[in-house]
Amino acid sequence: MFIDIIPLQKNTARLTRVYGDAPCAALPASVPGPEGGVLAITELGDYCFSEKPRSLPRADTLCRYEVSPDGTCALVQAFGRNLTGRHGRYDLDFGEGAAAPEELHPVCGNFVEEVILPDSLQVIGSCAFYNCRRLRRLSVGAGDLTVGSDVFLNCFALADLLVRAAPEEKTGLFALVNNITEAVRALFWLPGEARPRAGLWYPAYWEDVEESPAHILLHTFSGQGYHYRQCFLDGKILSAEYDAIFPDGHAAEDQGVAAMLCFDRLRWPWNLTEKAKDPYREFLASHTGLVLQRLLKAQDTDSIKDLLALDVLVSPSDARYSACNDVLGDYADFTEADDARAEGFVPLGFYCEADIWADSVPETGSVLGSGERKGSEAMRRFRWMLTSEEAAQVRSIHLDCGIMETPGQLTSQEIYVLDIPKPD
What we know:
Blueprint: E1 2-7, E2 12-19, E3 24-26, E4 30-32, E5 38-44, E6 63-67, E7 73-78, E8 81-82, E9 114-116, E10 123-124, E11 137-140, E12 146-147, E13 160-163, H1 173-177, E14 184-188, E15 198-202, E16 206-211, E17 217-222, H2 225-228, E18 232-233, E19 236-237, H3 239-245, H4 255-267, H5 274-286, H6 288-297, H7 301-309, H8 316-329, H9 331-335, H10 338-342, E20 350-358, E21 366-369, E22 372-373, H11 388-391, E23 394-406, E24 409-419
Parallel strand pairs: 2-5, 3-9, 5-10, 9-11, 10-12, 11-13, 13-14
Antiparallel strand pairs: 1-2, 1-6, 4-5, 6-7, 7-8, 14-15, 16-17, 18-19, 20-21, 20-22, 20-23, 23-24
């Protein structure tokens, strides 16, 4: 991996660009100074990870470093002067001066999926992640952050903010979540620990701006997500205020996000009082299927065990019945393109089938039911209903998806296999 930085005052630096072949970038906290000493990377430049930045700094203002897998940084170019003396794939001198930026592969735009920011970072520039549509996780350290405008504009896949700090510490989470209007989860996960200490969801919200006849701008916020984002004081989370929002109403929210909010709040109950638990447990008990649907789709068995440990399920049979029907009921959205397109397929047609296996015959299993859809039916809701007796026997679900890349050529692959554990 290569990084470009601009040296600043007080032995600090601004990172302006990252190059490499991996979609996950772990940024160093410091680099050797071109004139000796150490420069701490404290800023992320404007449009740093954007595919089409407004402008890039001139080569004679930059220092370029090669970052090894162990995090060691070596200066290879200083203010336009090549310091490597070698010629290879990422050489910066081909006898014609420094290599042009297009000769390096930038980690940006739709290529980048995960970025680990260093603990030293204090500033994130405007539009730093603009149009990073596949960015799904951002990891930050403890300490305050100053964040520019439109930092996460069009980052539709961003799901998790991993904060490497204890939830009671002062962090930059307030600035981050207030730059994101879509639903996002913050995980407080200290390095070396097996589990997060807290998981807090921030649901989506919408902002409308209207101008009155008196030319006064009126701001209207819709969705509880805005209120959740205000539960901070001096960079620290106000847990009591956060938990007080849920009982006030969530009918207009995404019920799947609301159910996951309850689940994560209960399984990692940081500063959660007994009184605050009741609304979460009540909602989760009546929407368990929505949580199971997400966990089963991700094949997250550890989280399924956490859900069972909360003892909010009516019975194992009811849980399996709900899980099977939720997964298959919303399967149309799953097959309609996201996963297929991610693998480069052009879906001209779809088919899928579901085989539900029971444990009545341990050696081979038995098929309780299967279904199939073809052609235009691929866009219709696909649901396989089980009786309560059948649901009690379910051990696994196999979903196969066939994708027609060209007329007459069908590529079939098993893309979803779910194993449901036996009840205790």
